Amino acid sequence: MPINPAARPQSGADAASAPSLDPVRPIDPVLLTIPDGTRDVTVVEEIDGLTYIDPDDPAMPSYRVIANNRQPVALRDMMILPVRTGYIGQDRVKPDPALVPPTGAEAVPDVDVTTVYLPVRDGVASALVYRPQGAAAEAALPVLLYVHGGGFTVGSAADTDYITRRLARDNGLVVVSANYRLAPEYPFPTPLDDVADLYAWLRTDAERVGGDPAWVGVAGDSAGSNFAAALPLLARQRGLAAPRAVLMYGAFIDFVQERWASFQAQAPRGIVYDSAFFGFIRGAYLPTTSWTDPLASPIYGDLTDYPPTFLATGTHDPIIDSARAFAEALAQKGVAVDGYFPEGMPHGFYFFPDVQDPEGDVAFERTQAFLAQHR
């Protein structure tokens, strides 16, 4: 899968997520191509740091010397390069075939996948639409907007192909798995605005992707769960109906992680998630925004009338304490909440099929039971 978003194709999909030739329910053909005169804003474009500097800037002589010594010029661009090229090691030869998990299509084949381009400010955003093959052709299914993780700086909708296939099949949903603009090129609030624009569109036009605009929930993993948690707060600000449910995997709801004992104990030497990476993504996504802004750290928001929420976070994830605290804060507000916190599981234990057994499956089984109660 194309983990490096700098190489994200125009289609937003990979071979495992190729569009279905005969979707079960027709998708509006207008959504299958990028409209003339617009662009897919989620495609990461290489930039030259000097293009951001006024040629008459008195410091330009120094900048040109720096540019002669190193490329890229800006440290933020230099720092993001190894993150994007090494995120899951997509270019690395895997020495042990037994440790290569099944693809999403191999693990959950009975789902149709179609690439669409949906309107956001400044253009369109590519997304993958998942529909279970067992659904009746005439059925307008409940919709789940899914937001991929990747530390706000990397990743694509194709990366979470297994998760989104599983959610669609297990729950009889149309899952719209969205791409969004990434930091550091696009810091807060642009990525969240992309997600909110897609949500607003689904609330009025979901039938164009085979869904029911009356039931739209939101879900995400890791950084994507942060957007999912913030969306009800932003929807309230913008006068939109709240999502019908919120699903959070590797629940990321606080950018002030240093105040939590689990982060203090686990993050300095974390494997999947560590304090060095956390510091980098915080600076990339929130370069000038308060870390306690509720739209960046939803745990500081007003949780009154918050939607029913499911959280899955392992006890060996450095952010586990904040995830538990968020669940407790929701419960205190009378929100229907279910938290699954499996012992010993790391950040992303739900990501690969048949790897963390049974905990990975249990996360999806608990999700299924939770959604059955809130449909």
- Share of helix among residues? 25-40%
> Which secondary-structure class do the elements indicate?
alpha/beta
The shape, in one word, is globular
CATH superfamily: Alpha/Beta hydrolase fold, catalytic domain
**What's the CATH topology label?**
Rossmann fold
Number of strand segments = 8
Q: End-to-end span in angstroms?
A: 32 Å
Which spans have pLDDT < 50 for at least 5 consecutive residues? 1-23
Radius of gyration: 20 Å
Order of helices and strands: HHHEEEHEHEHEHHEHEH
Strand order of the largest sheet: 1-2-4-3-5-6-7-8
What's the level 1 CATH class?
Alpha Beta
Could you describe the largest sheet, including whether it forms a barrel? 8 strands, mixed
Describe this structure in words.
Helices cover 30% and strands 15% of the residues. With 375 residues, the protein is α/β, with parallel strands linked by helices. It has one domain (104-373): Alpha/Beta hydrolase fold, catalytic domain (Rossmann fold). It has an eight-stranded mixed sheet, sandwiched between helices. A hairpin with a 2-residue loop joins strand 1 and strand 2 (123-132). Helix 4 (161-171) packs across helix 10.
SSE layout and pairing:
Layout: H1 60-69, H2 75-86, H3 104-107, E1 111-120, E2 123-132, E3 141-147, H4 161-171, E4 174-178, H5 190-205, E5 211-221, H6 223-237, E6 246-249, H7 261-266, H8 275-285, E7 309-312, H9 320-332, E8 337-340, H10 359-373
Parallel strand pairs: 3-4, 3-5, 5-6, 6-7, 7-8
Antiparallel strand pairs: 1-2, 2-4
Helix pairs in contact: 4-10, 5-6
